[in-house]
Amino acid sequence: MARQAIRFLRRGQVVELSSLPPTRTLLDYLRLEEKSKGTKEGCNEGDCGACTVALGSLEEGRVVYEPVNACILLLGQIDGKELVTVDDLAAGGKLHPVQKAFVDNHASQCGFCTPGFVMSLFTLYHAGAAPTRQQIADHIAGNLCRCTGYRPIIDAAMKACDGRPADQWAAGAAGAARILCSMHDGADVFVGTPESFVARPVSPDALSRLAAEHPDATIVSGATDVGLWITKQLRVLPKIILTGGVSTLHDVTEMPDRVSIGAAATYAAVYYTHLRAHETP
Ligand code: FES
Ligand code: FES
User: Fold this and answer.
1) According to the model, what pLDDT value does residue 82 have?
2) Which residue's CA is minimally distant from atom 1 of ligand 2?
3) d(CA 72, CA 28)
4) Is 22 in the pocket of ligand 1 (CB under 6 A)?
5) Which residues surround ligand 2 with Cβ inside 6 Å?
6) Would you say 61 and 131 are in contact if contact means Cβ atoms under 8 Å apart?
7) What is the tens place of the pLDDT at every residue in 115-138?
8) What's residue 102's pLDDT?
9) Residue 79 Cβ contacting ligand 1 at under 6 Å
10) FRET partner for 210 with CA separation of 20 to 30 A, picked from 36, 106, 169, 235?
11) Mind spelling out the 3-state secondary structure of 197-243?
């Protein structure tokens, strides 16, 4: 029996959604439904980073945060994750250390890009060791600023990201890991009706079965293309099958003469753990 709701961790609570338009983006959910308007819409096509939010995933028992573009991420893709947005950062009348460093280093002028930069750097703040300037530049490569300039932004990141996170997410890490662990029920997800749905199967068999039953469905892995079909071409896609729940599709296997890359493997996972070693200088 498939679970008929997607669920994610938000502000310490598990959110369950049993009804959602299949193509609902995370950004539209935040701004139009949750009314959390700190996350901005710039290009709405995954280029500028204004809409960056952090997703926390359980990896080897701990929560690891990564920045994602909410504008082209489908809401169904955050099943099983923790969602953190810029609206959550300041607490008890105090700015988050990344926000404070932005103020102290004059790293914001018009401010439109700032929530996205702050959330990208929130994930770097939680990444462990203190980064170099080059690592910071690489980390914010998906965030564009047209007026401040990058030097003060990198200065702010150098100040804040010291490898010793001390915010509410660091303090609550064990609790968040426990909740994320309890949410992993290994169930297929199917939300909607046979005519209009978002499905997130967890096994290759379940994925094959769904694809055979619904040859007109759109199969989505990262959504970097399909996201633009939705936000730019305004296409109606009533049936969405997400591949991200099938763990074997994330596998990358090196063989003597080739590398086998699963259809749901991310570019970062493939590049940093496998392909980079084969680059010619
Ligand atoms: Fe530009 Fe999302 S709004 S990347
Ligand atoms: Fe204006 Fe960055 S502060 S775009």
Assistant:
1) 98
2) 110
3) 10
4) no
5) 108-114, 145-148
6) no
7) 999 999 999 999 988 999 999 999
8) 98
9) no
10) 235
11) EEEECCCHHHHHHHHHHCCCCEEECCCCCHHHHHHCCCCCCCEEEEC
pLDDT(259) > 90: no
Q: How confident is the model at residue 274 (pLDDT cuts 50, 70, 90)?
A: confident
Residue 280 has pLDDT above 80, yes or no: no
Structure tokens at 32: 């139009």
C-alpha–C-alpha distance, residues 50 and 64, integer Å: 21
Decide: 51 in ligand 1 pocket, CB within 6 A: yes
- Write down the pLDDT at residue 66: 96
Residue 277's pLDDT band, with cuts at 50, 70 and 90, is confident
Closest-approaching ligand to the CA atom of 228: 1
Does the beta carbon of 82 lie inside 6 Å of ligand 1?
Answer: no
Distance (angstroms) between ligand 1 centre and the Cα of 69 equals 6
For ligand 1, the distance from its centroid to the CA atom of residue 227, given in whole angstroms, is 11
CA of 42 to the centre of ligand 1 (A): 5
Ligand 1 centroid to residue 39 C-alpha, Å:
10
Contact 31, 44 (CB under 8 A): no
Smallest CA-to-CA distance from 231 within 23, 19, 69 is with 23
The arithmetic mean of pLDDT across residues 178-196, rounded, is 96
Q: Which two tokens stand for residue 232?
A: 């730019």
Contact 218, 239 (CB under 8 A): yes
Using CA atoms, how far residue 130 sits from 150, 189, 229, 255, in Å, is: 19, 38, 38, 34
- What pLDDT does residue 136 have? 98
- The per-residue pLDDT for 20 is 94
